[in-house]
């Protein structure tokens, strides 16, 4: 039986895998309190109060790998925006669905007009 702190560490390091509508495999990890604190520092006090920006930044910062290539945690506003641009609408939507516990949209369903 593991200790409570070991269980917390294990839960924080658990990753989820989702495929976006572009076919990319995204590895996602739920952010910890420390991750969120570092994200607030990266985006600064003004953008930390901007809920739409913060939400998008949190989704992007939850991605730890794209197609098996590790993604380092962003530490500047520019890195956050570059990661959001790299993920695009399909990547952000897939991450949001995965973290919400919902299934991601079917591959290609938007392109087929379904």
Secondary structure: elements and pairs:
Blueprint: H1 4-12, E1 15-19, E2 25-29, H2 33-48, H3 51-61, E3 63-66, E4 69-70, H4 77-100
Antiparallel strand pairs: 1-2, 2-3, 3-4
What does this structure look like?
The protein is globular. The protein has a domain at 28-100. It contains four helices and four strands. It has a four-stranded antiparallel beta sheet with strand order 1-2-3-4. The chain has helices spanning 4-12, 33-48, 51-61, 77-100, and strands at 15-19, 25-29, 63-66, 69-70.
Report the C-alpha radius of gyration, rounded.
15 Å
Strand order of the largest sheet: 1-2-3-4
**Biggest sheet character:** 4 strands, antiparallel
Number of strands: 4
Estimate the global geometry from the Cα principal axes.
globular
* Span between termini: 48 Å
The H-and-E topology, N to C, reads as: HEEHHEEH
Beta-strand percent range: 5-15%
- pLDDT < 50 stretches: 105-114
Helical amount: 40-55%
Mean pLDDT: 85
Oligomer: single chain
Q: Structural class of the helix and strand makeup?
A: alpha+beta
Number of helices: 4
